[in-house]
Amino acid sequence: MRENTYKVIELVGTSNATIEEAVKNALSRAEQSVRNMRWFEIKQIRGEMEDNSVTYWQAVLKVGFDIEEAPKEKIPPKAANKERLAQPSAAKEQKVSGKYRCKVCGYIYDPEKGDPDNGVAPGTAFEDLPDDWKCPECGVNKEQFEAIK
Ligand SMILES: [Fe+2]
Fold first, then answer.
1. pTM: predicted TM-score of the whole model, two decimal places
2. What's the burial of 31, exposed, middle or buried (CB within 10 Å: 0-12/13-18/19+)?
3. What pLDDT score was predicted for residue 82?
4. Nearest CA to 58 among 18, 9, 13, 17?
5. What is the phi/psi pair of residue 64, to 5°?
């Protein structure tokens, strides 16, 4: 018997055609950034009407996915990061003190706040987070984060 532990994210899919399309649209979009999706549950169904007919569907889904083992490779060492930042052009592209957003669940890592619940002190730059740090909301690793302005 499987004894998997799942992480759950919430999605809202939409369609002009059917509720089923709304579900499929949400899942196929999520597939681009979430791996190992295993099941979903429809929490809410909504629609919009015009002239007494339905013109728009919305489905609120919960999607469960397997938690992955953290990959051992990649993420450049901090020394390499600092070297890159020493070059003026690279420093412009990547602000050390910037916020980062989880592409899976939308959680925003704010270096000013850190992640005290998980032992990350306020003032810790995203680049200085430990390689095994995980999104506190959905559990994905740092590679699933993108810098935001
Ligand atoms: Fe997340």
1. 0.47
2. exposed
3. 53
4. 13
5. -100, 135
In the predicted structure, residue 137 carries a pLDDT above the cut 50:
yes
Kindly state the average pLDDT of the residues 125-139.
91
CA of residue 132 to ligand 1 center, whole Å: 14
Cα 17 to averaged position of ligand 1 atoms, centre (Å): 30
CA distance 136 to 129: 13
Give residue 66 CA to ligand 1 midpoint distance, Å. 14
Per-residue burial over 52-86, b = 16 or more CB atoms within 10 Å of its CB, e = otherwise: eeeeebbbbbebbbeeeeeeeeebeeeeebeeebe
